[in-house]
Here is the input.
Amino acid sequence: MSRAFAFQGDLKMSAQYIYDTAPLGSLIRYSNGEPRPPERFRRKLAAWNNDNGTGRLVERYPGQVTDNYRSPAHFMLHLATYGSQGVIVMTVRRAYSVESPLNFEIIDTPKLGQVRVLTTFRGKDELRHLAADMASAEAWMRDNPYSGMRAEIVTDADLAVLPSELRRAA
Here is the structure.
């Protein structure tokens, strides 16, 4: 029986690694390393689901240090969107500190030629949508107006080296 969310070759990445290297739009898997409990243990399963899943990297926040406050750098994963008949009712996002004890893995990055739809607030980019091409991005931007939107084509410089590619090169 295989473990749920077992990392390829158990290569585990820290939250700091994700913050530093994963391009916006990357699909990130996170795990506490524990095996998934059986369905009959509903509370244990709910707790396990809280620490194990996947999400799309949509934001990064630098850390802040003041005289009486310290906030480490963190990143935001988009976990789910709920709605009906084209109306979004709720978007679920979760922030992870670079000090998080969870294990992370980049399981997919935006492909060359895809288009990120971004907004910028206080100098930080936020991914609003990842489109297959510029025509799809422009259509999405017409249907979903945000202030200061821009489209950015994914280039070679944006691509991260995935762990499976690192292992093959060795």
Summary: The first strand starts at residue 27 and ends at 31. DSSP finds four helices and ten strands in the chain.
